[in-house]
Amino acid sequence: MFKRVALPVAAAAVLLTSGVAGAADIGGPPILRGSEVVAPYEDVDKWSGVYVGGHVGMQIIRNTGHHSNGTNGPIPDGGAPPNLVYNFSYDYAQAKMNYGLHIGIQRLFGHFLIGAEFDFDGPSGKATSPWYNGHVAFSGGVAGNSYQQRVGFNWQGSLRARVGFVHHKSLFYLTGGLAFANMTVCTVLDDCVTGANHVVRYTRTRLGWTIGAGIEHKFSYNWSMRAEYRYTNFGSRNCFSTDACSINVDASDINNRVESHMVRVGVSYLFGAPAMPMAPIMARY
Predict the structure, then answer these.
(1) Most exposed residue of 15, 58, 60, 133, measured as fewest CB within 10 angstroms of its CB?
(2) Which of 38-42, 99-103, 267-271 has the lowest mean pLDDT?
(3) Measured between alpha carbons, how far is 60 from 212 in angstroms, rounded to an integer?
(4) What are the structural domains of the chain?
């Protein structure tokens, strides 16, 4: 009796095993054994590593301050009671093209990203103010000379942290850190290139800070595109009539403050290759 039951059962097991193997051979769905789980492709880390890229955009340069005479400050305007005035005050902003390169390193922790980035930008054109008429208090009661303020970036850069959140193929991030720029600032009567008729002129590297936000989208494991806004403040600088930056001993710039608003787009290349997306995770129980 036992042999009559066991032989058909064994034959059925052989046929079933052969059918499963045949299905696998002809391209049928793989059979997961035990508790094998396949890691979905979306869980593969496509952000961690070192990257390089380029960017281009527009930068609004704003320059504010005062121009004075050899007193290095305001003087009475001759009224009663006297008002303390400068030769002129300036506050202007102009948009200039911005372009450069960036390099960074970053690490993904779940959906949160932390990284550091360095960027370096090329020269931009000079931002120039309107022509200002000097105050009569500086010129013996008659209309004074006309002046213009100019500021140009010879180069600039930043070293920043980046923190963000990854959702599907997009990164939403905040960024901020140290900014630096080499700039030429001058107050002129008619020319700030050849050195003729300018009363204040200096080229200095100034430190500041920057903060901003952006979005970056992956098109493949290696390539991504970003859009970013940044505000940068380079602080204030004085050029007194006794300083070397004052060409005319009877002129000085006081509290020269430079800021910028930058909007730019860029592309980045992440080095390396993706991890195997279909590696099974084995669990035993």
Answers:
(1) 15
(2) 38-42
(3) 14
(4) 47-270 (2.40.160.20)
